[in-house]
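Q: Given only this backbone (305 positions), what sequence would you predict?
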């Protein structure tokens, strides 16, 4: 708590910054505090308590933000030490319908909520104030959605057009290769480089074989048994980390196998294994290692090399 003069109104400040590594929390806190003080100090207000969330998305509800939940809990305390709350940037505080869910709590405990956009405390009986805050919540949600769409579209274009590898585990049948310095000068100065996918000489023929046998009419379990019989190791336990598989069934859509077929095939293999185990003729008894199931093409490449 900060001391205040007898004729000053004590305020609590709330702010938020979404990331700690891509933004400067100290700078973000400073400019949000500056806006808040510019609003309340001419009216005799002083900030005596601060609640500032770091590395929390605006889409996270107030109850799940550490500092915002502390502020809501403090509202219930008679000795909280402040008589109003000021927010320097509504975009940072509210997302979607969060304002409509949070402001009634302030009303219930009789604490005014000040924001610069209305020039003072929000009047719950003023329809214009309610409309302005609702619009800011919608704009905040729309801004986040637009950024998400742009980033995903840009990443897809970089992968499809430029051939970049954007991170994660390479699909089975590929290895990560160097693609030159990063196009961003600042990142290039830090030594960061681009990467692309290249065929894995050892695993690529296995992927081509899986697709060929599948197109020839072989079932997943048959292909798995043949791979195991030929001592081809399962990608779920590779001998090296050069080419780790992507094991999500949804990935098989680009392999010419729709997600519904992939799910059905996975269920079929699991059901067949269960029936075999119940009948007493397990794969171990017939000389087929247990890894035969995990070696199915469901665990292999997303795109044939």
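A: Predicted residues:
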């Amino acid at each position: 708590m900060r001391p205040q003069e007898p004729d000053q109104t004590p305020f609590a400040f709330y702010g938020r910054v979404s990331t700690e590594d891509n933004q400067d929390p100290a700078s973000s806190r400073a400019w949000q505090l500056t806006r808040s003080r510019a609003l309340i100090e001419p009216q005799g207000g002083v900030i005596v308590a601060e609640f500032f969330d770091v590395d929390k998305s605006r889409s996270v509800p107030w109850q799940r933000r550490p500092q915002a939940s502390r502020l809501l809990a403090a509202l219930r305390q008679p000795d909280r030490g402040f008589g109003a709350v000021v927010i320097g940037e509504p975009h940072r505080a509210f997302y979607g319908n969060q304002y409509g869910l949070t402001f009634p709590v302030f009303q219930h405990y009789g604490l005014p909520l000040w924001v610069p956009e209305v020039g003072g405390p929000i009047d719950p009986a003023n329809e214009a104030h309610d409309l302005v805050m609702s619009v800011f919540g919608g704009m905040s949600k729309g801004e986040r959605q637009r950024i998400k769409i742009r980033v995903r579209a840009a990443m897809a274009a970089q992968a499809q057009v430029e051939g970049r590898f954007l991170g994660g585990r390479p699909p089975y049948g590929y290895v990560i290769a160097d693609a030159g310095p990063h196009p961003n000068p600042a990142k290039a100065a830090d030594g960061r480089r681009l990467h692309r996918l290249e065929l894995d000489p050892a695993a690529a023929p296995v992927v081509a074989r899986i697709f060929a046998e599948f197109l020839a009419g072989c079932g997943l379990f048959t292909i798995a048994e043949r791979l195991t019989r030929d001592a081809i190791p399962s990608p779920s336990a590779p001998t090296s980390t050069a080419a780790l598989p992507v094991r999500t069934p949804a990935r098989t859509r680009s392999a010419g196998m729709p997600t519904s077929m992939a799910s059905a095939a996975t269920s079929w293999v699991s059901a067949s294994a269960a029936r075999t185990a119940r009948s007493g003729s397990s794969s171990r008894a017939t000389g087929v290692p247990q890894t035969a199931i995990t070696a199915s093409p469901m665990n292999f490449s997303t795109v044939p090399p």
